[in-house]
Amino acid sequence: xxxxxxxxxxxxxxxxxxxxxxxxxxxIKCGQCKEVCTNAIGVHGxxxxxxxxxxxxxxxxGQCANVCPPSSITEVYEYAExxxxxxxxxxxxxxxxxxxxxxxLGEEFGMPKGSFVEGKMxxxxxxxxxxxxxxxxxxxxxxxxxxxxxxxQRITKQDAPLPQFTSCCPAWVKFAETxxxxxxxHVSTAKSPIGMQGPTIKTYFAQKMGIDPNNIxxxxxxxxxxxxxxxxxxxxxxxxxxxxxxxxxxxxxxITTRELAILxxxxxxxxxxxxxxxxxxxxxQASGAGVIFGNTGGVMEAALRTAYAYITGQEPPAALLDxxxxxxxxxxxxxxxxxxxxxxxxxxxxxxANARKLIEAMKQGEKQYxxxxxxTCPGGCIGGGGxxxxxxxxxxxxxxxxxxxxxxxxxGLTLRTSHENPEIKQLYAEFYGEPLSxxxxxxxxxxxxxxxxxxxxxxxxxxxxxKYIIEKIIKKIKSFTTMSNIELLAPAGTPEALVAAFAxxxxxxxxxxxxxxxxxxxENFTVENMRQAIAYAHKLHKKVYITLNTLIKEDELPDLxxxxxxxxxxxxxxxIVQDLGVLxxxxxxxxxxxxxxxxxxxIHNSAGVEMAAAMGVKRVI
Length: 621
Known about the structure:
alpha/beta; six-stranded parallel sheet
């Protein structure tokens, strides 16, 4: 018996969904949630419950909550936990505010749509007892510096595929992981602003302010319900890995614009009477580029400003500070930007249903781009699933008013480019070194996972327990030897296991693809996420060895040759081989591949090692 109603009635919601929840007593079966999830988001209607093992597919955007007339669907409330942390004298509560909250919060208190209430928002947080109020716009500047640097590297060094997709929208990322895992190597590895703000606070900011990171409660104030899912992704503990405390999360709680309003009203605070306050002195300054992050097209425009400066060595011209072709409200917009003799083709999409249309058009060869911004929610983050809703007003007009407010704020600032933010410069000088540095890659970048099995009963294997087992094993092994040149090699069946192994101290991992490896029946990498994993490992100066450790039958040789050609294109650090015929094929037709002899080759003495070396093997395992 199914635990969900018919998909023809409404969207299903799992009880453990971290972002949204349904109050069954309030649901009127109107179908509004189904309509928005089908038409704007492009998720509902793409699967049936028999196909998914009775599991709902959700990208956590919260648009179903925004259109639910009786508010049967809401975000998962976390404001009580935040209030409890504020009341705990041993906790240091730090709230980082996203750009779109300040142009929507006033609506909850009867102010005109799009009112810019940054000062009152900060004052409200201080009145509630928050210890520090920081600006996520600062981290938006940080994201732009990293993402623009990555884009330039992809274009000039061709070290990763184009187009580059933005990665700041967690609902879009999960959409890509679920429906288009082959595109994951194209998604920027740069974390979202909240994804960067969290670890930077618990490392650099904590050290600068003399705060024990274990006492910090990091709270993200956002327009976005999907951020509740994002902060709970397994890999979002970069600060903890850096500090040797893997249980330490980068961001601890997410509250939405609506939740902050509820908290203010329950606390009896008169929002309108609050006198404006200002952000704390560090990680509170942002450029106009960071401000417009909340608008559809804002990330694109901000990144192009910095990319232009990095490529040409000059500040962007006025046209790039008001890039009209990517501004607007249409679901899909594109433009051509000339930078130093290069024509950069860009596209902006909001609504993942529109993103699907664009991707399918690209597959057909109709469109080709260098850089694509995707936001799930209508209008961008200003239309997020946790924003105020008013069924008496036109939703499009409300969102356009918020967009205009952020652009007006950008235009009124003298600092318009992310890389010129003096606090960002200070952060790199004192901590990260330079964009895409090893420390920046470790704390500010990430990898993604193939979730396509969610559409066909499998799902993603959770790797939490294995991460700690791997870490303990590696520490134990390292305690056995004082050799300085030992390479610690760990198995990895999934991207999560690879991340866990490297985080725990492994120097290299061995991993297999769906065919021709001894673990074919277990969880393995796809061709696309293996390519991404190798790029991720190399950024960390780690190694990946691909296993071809099975015996190959005669009729399998043609398929193997095609398979190996794909592996060679990935540029792994080595392939691990069992079959002597495969070894000969690699030496003759793929001489650039480094070969390691598998344990299954049965070499147990120095004579065997010498024979393998004579055949071109570089290492015997």
